[in-house]
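User: You have something folded?
Assistant:
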Amino acid sequence: MNKVLFICKANINRSPMAEAIFCQLLKTKGLDEKFTVDSAATNKSHIGQRPFRSTRKFLDKMHIPYEWIRSRQVTKNDLDSFDYIVVMDQENLSVLSNRFGQVRKVQFLLDYLPEVKDKNVPDPSLTGNHMETYNLLLKSCEKLLLHIIKCEGLDRDNGNAKEIGG
């Protein structure tokens, strides 16, 4: 089982959107049984809440399910138990590092898009642009999934796995 965790500040916009997109990609490719996917916040201001209303409306418009997602705060156990831990911006990485010390498994989601120089995923609650955030998340989630498929040998288990985005 491959475990992927998406992290942002409040877990009500970017990380739940990434979780929902990644789960949709897995389902489309028949890989959902091989993964555990979750998202979490670096702070506790919205614990237990659903994604932000505008994010829910956007995901509805894109026909991406998200109903199970509730905000929760990241724990030390998460950092130990998840295989792939991806943050949305530098602030998230700094908070994790300050709170938990060494965060060797943590990486920027936008590291999977080397052509994008700014590794901070824009927060749609600040920019008002859910489509920009969605496009970055979709492309980077596709690349992350391809990376995991290759690293974990999942392309040998599922012939369709290489056809992400197609």
Observations:
- The CA atoms of residues 79 and 104 lie 9 Å apart.
- DSSP finds six helices and four strands in the chain.
